[in-house]
Design a protein that fits this description.
This protein is of the alpha+beta class. The protein contains two helices and five strands, in the order βααββββ. It is globular, with a radius of gyration of 12 Å.
Amino acid sequence: MDIVYSSKFAREYKKLPGNIKDVAEEQETIFRKNPFDPKLKTHKLKGKLSGFLSFSIGSKYRIIFEFAKDRKTAYFHSAGNHDVCR
């Protein structure tokens, strides 16, 4: 799976604690193989983020993304805790 990182995602990712970045890299490896692996807790979002999905990076953080129509590419839009990713 190809992943495209938005500039917003890149800015937010840089601000994550180092240990969370390590977990995020491990989760991304899993995501590339199977975006719906149970370890990721991937789920659809509701409300103003309807149409997007997210997966967990640790218990407090998440990555918000969407798939391209072909489902071969994912666009990572945001990374952070649940308050930042709204």
